[in-house]
C-alpha cells in the first residue's frame, strides 16, 4: 500500500505508519498494539522478514482473515480473526508475556494519549471518573521490547500538544518510549528530553516548540 | 485405571461451592469454556470470585454468569469491550467488584501459583496507579513491583484433545490462559472436543501434562458448530 499525499507540514496517519515501518529492521520480532499501530503492518517493507507477535499467544501472525477464512480459534489481541504464516508458533499467556517482559521482542509500537519528553507513556486511561477501567496488555507492552515506538498525532483535536513536560493522564509506564512518530515530526526521547530527528515538510523547530511548550533539540538522523 | 472423564459437565461441577474462586480460560471468545460455564450457571454456586482475562462478551458464557448476579468479584485485565454491556451495567451500578491487573502480571500471578512461587518482582506497572500501595524494589538499577500468586478452587478451561490421563493439546490462539490456569487451581476441569486413547497423543506435542488436570468433559467436535464453518 502506498501512503496518500499529504499537506506540506503534516503527514496522514498512513504516512506516519509508513515512516515508522521503515525503521523496523529485517529479522525483527515486533508487536503492533491495538488501534493506530496496526496500520504499520500495511507498510512493512516486502524485502524484510518481520515476525509479528500477538500477545494472546502467537508469533508469525499473518494478515486479517478474509471472509470465508474465519477461524474462531485464531484471533489477534484486538480479537479480530487473523491468519497464520508459514513458521508460525503458538504459546500460552505466561510464555507470551515472558517474551515481552524478558526483552526478547525487538520493537513494540503503541498508540498514546500523552507522552512526556522523557518517554513516560499514558495510553490506557483518560482518568474520567465514569469510565470503566481496562488495561489489558498496555503496561506490559510499554516495558516489553528492546525499543518502544509510539505513533500519534502531535496535537489533540482541540490543538493541545500530546507531547508534554509531564503526563496528566494516568501513566502506563515510566521512561519507556524511545521514539515518537507524529504527523509533524519524529522525536527521540530520553532522560535528557526530546530531540527532533525529522521534521515533516516545512515544519520548523520554532513551530514545534510553540505547540509543545518544550525546549527541543534538533539532530537530523539520516535514515 | 485412571480415567478423568466425567459423565457430564453437571457431574464435573457438582461440588463447586458458594464463595469459590473460579478461573475461567479464554481471551475474548477464543478458548472460553462455554459448556462448562453453562453448567456452572445451571449448578447454582454463587458469590463467586472469577479470574479471567475479560469480563464476558455478548450475552452468553461468562457474560451470562455475571448477568445472573453470581459473581461477586472479577479479577481481570480488560473488562471493557465493545460487547461487554452486561459487565458494564453491573459495574456502573456497583453490583460487582473489579480487581484490574495488567495482562502479563495476571498471567504470571496465575503461573506463579501453579509453580509454587511465593511472590515475584515484575517491572510491569511500576510507577502507575495499578501498583499503588504495593512493595517495590530496585534490582540491578531497574524498578520492580512485588506481585503475589493467584490461586483458584476450580479452573474451567477449554482444550482440543485429551486422553483419559488428562494430557491436553490445544488449537491455535485458544490455548491462551489454559495451561497456566490448569496449574493454579485445586481442581481443574477441562472441556475438550474428544477424548482419545492413551498413547494417541504424541507425547512431544502434549502442551498440558495430565498431572494438572482433574476432570474432563467431552463436548463434541467444534467443527460441527456453525462458527467453525469456514475452517471445517
UniProtKB/TrEMBL annotation, chain A:
Lineage, opening ranks: Bacteria, Bacillati, Actinomycetota, Actinomycetes, Micrococcales
Protein name (record): 3-oxoadipate CoA-transferase
Keywords from the named record: Transferase
InterPro entries membership: 3-oxoacid_CoA-transf_B (IPR012791), CoA_trans_fam_I (IPR004165), NagB/RpiA_transferase-like (IPR037171)
Highest taxon in the source lineage: Bacteria
Classification via NCBIfam families: pcaJ_scoB_fam
Recorded GO MF terms: CoA-transferase activity
UniProt organism field: Subtercola boreus
Family annotation (PANTHER family): KETOACID-COENZYME A TRANSFERASE (PTHR13707), SUCCINYL-COA:3-KETOACID COENZYME A TRANSFERASE SUBUNIT B-RELATED (PTHR13707:SF57)
Automatic annotation (TrEMBL), chain B:
Highest taxon in the source lineage: Bacteria
SUPFAM superfamilies with a match to the protein in the record: NagB/RpiA/CoA transferase-like
Keywords assigned by UniProt, alphabetized: Transferase
Name of this chain's protein: 3-oxoadipate CoA-transferase
Molecular function terms from GO: CoA-transferase activity
Organism: Subtercola boreus
Pfam families: CoA_trans
Record family assignment: Belongs to the 3-oxoacid CoA-transferase subunit A family.
Amino acid at each position: 500500500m502506498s501512503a496518500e499525499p499529504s499537506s506540506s507540514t503534516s503527514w496522514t496517519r498512513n504516512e506516519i505508519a509508513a515512516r515508522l515501518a521503515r525503521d523496523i529492521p529485517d529479522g525483527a520480532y515486533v508487536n503492533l498494539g491495538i488501534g493506530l499501530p496496526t496500520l504499520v503492518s500495511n507498510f512493512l517493507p516486502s524485502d524484510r522478514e518481520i515476525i509479528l507477535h500477538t500477545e494472546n499467544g502467537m508469533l508469525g501472525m499473518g494478515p486479517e482473515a478474509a471472509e470465508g477464512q474465519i477461524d474462531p480459534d485464531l484471533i489477534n489481541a484486538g480479537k479480530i480473526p487473523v491468519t497464520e504464516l508459514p513458521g508460525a508458533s503458538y504459546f500460552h499467556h505466561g510464555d507470551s508475556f515472558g517474551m515481552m517482559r524478558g526483552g526478547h521482542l525487538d520493537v513494540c509500537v503503541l498508540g498514546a494519549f500523552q507522552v512526556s519528553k522523557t518517554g513516560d507513556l499514558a495510553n490506557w486511561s483518560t482518568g474520567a471518573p465514569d469510565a470503566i477501567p481496562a488495561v489489558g496488555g498496555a503496561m506490559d507492552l510499554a516495558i516489553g521490547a528492546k525499543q518502544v515506538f509510539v505513533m500519534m498525532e502531535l496535537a489533540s483535536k482541540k490543538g493541545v500538544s500530546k507531547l508534554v513536560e509531564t503526563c496528566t493522564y494516568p501513566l502506563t509506564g515510566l521512561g519507556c518510549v524511545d521514539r515518537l512518530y507524529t504527523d509533524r515530526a519524529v522525536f527521540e526521547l530520553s532522560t535528557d528530553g526530546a530531540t527532533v530527528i525529522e521534521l515533516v515538510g516545512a515544519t520548523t523547530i520554532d513551530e514545534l516548540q510553540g505547540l509543545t511548550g518544550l525546549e527541543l533539540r534538533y539532530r537530523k538522523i539520516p535514515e | 485405571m485412571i480415567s478423568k472423564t466425567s459423565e457430564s459437565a453437571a457431574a464435573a461441577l457438582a461440588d463447586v461451592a458458594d464463595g469459590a474462586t473460579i478461573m475461567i480460560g479464554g481471551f475474548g471468545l477464543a478458548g472460553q469454556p462455554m459448556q462448562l460455564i453453562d453448567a456452572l450457571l445451571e449448578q447454582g454456586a454463587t458469590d463467586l470470585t472469577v479470574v479471567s482475562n475479560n469480563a464476558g462478551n455478548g450475552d452468553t458464557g461468562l457474560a451470562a454468569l455475571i448477568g445472573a448476579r453470581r459473581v461477586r468479584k472479577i479479577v481481570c485485565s480488560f473488562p471493557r469491550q465493545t460487547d461487554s454491556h452486561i459487565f458494564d451495567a453491573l459495574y456502573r451500578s456497583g453490583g460487582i467488584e473489579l480487581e484490574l491487573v495488567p495482562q502479563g502480571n495476571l498471567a504470571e500471578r496465575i503461573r506463579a501459583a501453579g509453580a509454587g512461587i511465593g511472590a515475584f518482582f515484575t517491572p510491569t506497572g511500576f510507577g502507575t496507579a495499578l501498583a499503588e500501595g504495593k512493595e517495590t524494589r530496585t534490582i540491578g538499577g531497574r524498578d520492580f513491583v512485588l506481585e503475589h500468586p493467584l490461586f483458584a478452587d476450580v479452573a474451567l478451561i477449554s482444550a482440543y484433545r485429551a486422553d483419559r490421563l488428562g494430557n491436553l493439546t490445544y488449537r491455535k490462539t485458544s490455548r491462551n490462559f489454559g495451561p497456566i490456569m490448569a496449574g493454579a487451581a485445586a481442581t481443574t476441569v477441562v472441556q475438550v472436543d474428544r477424548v482419545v486413547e492413551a498413547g494417541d497423543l504424541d507425547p512431544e506435542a502434549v502442551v498440558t501434562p495430565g498431572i494438572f488436570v482433574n476432570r474432563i468433559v467431552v463436548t463434541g467436535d467444534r467443527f460441527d458448530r456453525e462458527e467453525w464453518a469456514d475452517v471445517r
